[in-house]
């Protein structure tokens, strides 16, 4: 076994390498998911919110990604309205009084998200603020809008499970998603069991997240997500960026079969340095699963290392949660292997500080 494998299995590696306690925050994934679900269940929404026919999730970074995961899940749900994620200033022109707008910002201070609120009020959209405080909570409360409180217990990206639980509960409570309490609970139990298998206390030989981090080390990760796992690929990318301080890219199948694969078949000198992760749900249509196999064949022909992940959850939600938690842990273990403290995000903080000046 290599020296670094021994290191990841040693508690001191985690104590020293993770002074901000990212490992504990990731371990709370299942608890946060349930807390978000419960918090949104306790919200009292005006009856008129049931009249919404479209949904817009407005947020940035760690506060936006729950919207993407929900959008992937709802895309194939016949009860669901169209759900769009908006990562920009202002609001799309189509947002009106029939739109449910979820303004999501853990800190409550993100300027892009804040810029949408007056427009949403002007257009009489049905707004819910999902926030831990700041100007968003203040303005939403002053406008008499429902505020779903987010615990400020860690960096926003660690609150993804909370935001996802809250969003799903909100949508199912409004009759916009087929998901019910039992379906949610089964998926939550699945991810809680998985957390125990990926925990730092589980040795590398039995821990698939540690093993994958070792395989990925020193390489450029490219995540291919498909179907309900398309946005999970984006989450992996973000977590590899922010926790592991690594560049990373996310692609989607089948779209990648119409462009990106040509780049993989070329002679670029860095091709051999890629590490591809294929996220394929078992619930995906057969043609999409075939495309994942064809991608794997192509990578093998090109001698590009890859790893295929097919979550075993049994339902689309369980698949999404499983693949997301795995990615969170891989990014954490990769950070430690590379001597990076997973918590700080200096580059993001510097840009925010410069924008304030
Ligand atoms: C930090 C993170 C960032 C923030 C983003 C928006 O952990 O993941 O992507 O989520 O800068 O800030 P908030 O979430 O406070 O609106």
In short:
The protein has 357 residues and is of the alpha/beta class. The protein is built from 15 helices and nine strands.
Give the helix tally: 15
Along the chain, the helix and strand elements come as HHHHEHEEHEHEHHHEHEHEHEHH
The residue-averaged pLDDT reads: 96
Strand content: 5-15%
Oligomer: single chain
Largest sheet report:
5 strands, parallel
How many strands appear in the DSSP assignment?
A: 9
- Spatial ordering of strands, largest sheet: 2-1-3-4-5
> Measured on Cα atoms, how large is the radius of gyration?
20 Å
Taking pLDDT < 50 over at least 5 consecutive residues as the criterion, the unreliable ranges are 1-5
User: From the helix content, strand content and strand pairing, which structural class follows?
Assistant: alpha/beta
- Cα end-to-end separation: 50 Å
Q: Can you list the ligands bound to this structure?
A: fructose -6-phosphate
Helix content: 40-55%
Shape: globular
